[in-house]
Amino acid sequence: MMRSLWTAATGMDAQQLNMDVVAHNLANANTTAFKKSRANFEDLIYQNLIPPGAETGAAGRIPTGIQIGMGVKTASVQKIFTQGNFTETGNQLDLAIEGKGFFKILRGADEVYTRAGTFKLDAEGYLVDVEGNRLQPEVSIPREAVTVNIDPRGTLSAFDQNGTLLASANLTLYDFPNPAGLLSLGKNYFAPSEASGEAVEGQPGTEGYGTLLQGFLESANINVVEEMVNMIAGQRAYEANSKVIRTADEMLRIANSVAS
């Protein structure tokens, strides 16, 4: 009976963490290029009272055995890198990645990666993100430029008011063997880890890399209805586990009253 108390407690812990993940997803429903997370669970060890296939006294074998599970634990919280929807902004420096890939940003002395393409110009005319960190490789746009065109393959062209080409550059993307293994740093930044593998540079629209959409931003890949359903399911599972604890406690009380 005491086993059920601890087993149900692991279920409540797991559902509490699941609710934390859902809350984080919903809180970032309007965060540019946010990627949702999913909690993955696995069952704990089993107490083998009678293993399957154990011999019986009549030289037969028990077909199923008796194994009592000890509950659940969180195996991982995984980032899901599915494509988000696109929102048109009309800003010629806003970029969305359609497909695989990340922008590389120099954050202090560290190279970090993001899919949020809300770029602007700093005081020296370089493309920077909302934190003021420069896009890598660095791209500068002359002060005289009036129009900036960025094609799907990452070719940036800056023109003056007479249509004269002032500067051009090639924007690059980076990808990882296992994007789900990236370390989330907050502020839409990711850092490579041993699980993600090293960043591989590529040209947009080639070798499986996504293309660029100028004047658009990628929305969070959150489905609010799906998250609400996950929240309700988690709440019900948490409630069911709490009832198991209450029932086990009541059974213990009854057992104690019989003994007295």
Account of the 3D structure:
With 260 residues, the chain is an alpha+beta fold. It contains 2 helices and 21 strands. It has a 3-stranded antiparallel β-sheet with strand order 9-6-20, with no helix packed on it. Helix 1 runs antiparallel to helix 2. The radius of gyration is 27 Å and the shape is elongated. The model has no long low-confidence stretch (mean pLDDT 93).
Count of extended strands = 21
Biggest sheet character: 3 strands, antiparallel
Poorly predicted sequence stretches spanning 5 or more consecutive residues? none
Number of helical regions: 2
Kindly, what is the distance between the CA atoms of the first and last residues, rounded to a whole number of angstroms?
18 Å
| DSSP helix fraction | 10-25%
| Major sheet: arrangement of strands | 9-6-20
Q: What is the string of helix and strand elements?
A: HEEEEEEEEEEEEEEEEEEEEEH
- The secondary structure category is alpha+beta
Residue-averaged pLDDT, rounded?
93
* Computed CA radius of gyration, to the nearest angstrom: 27 Å
The proportion of strand residues reads 25-35%
Per the principal axes of the C-alpha atoms, what is the gross shape? elongated
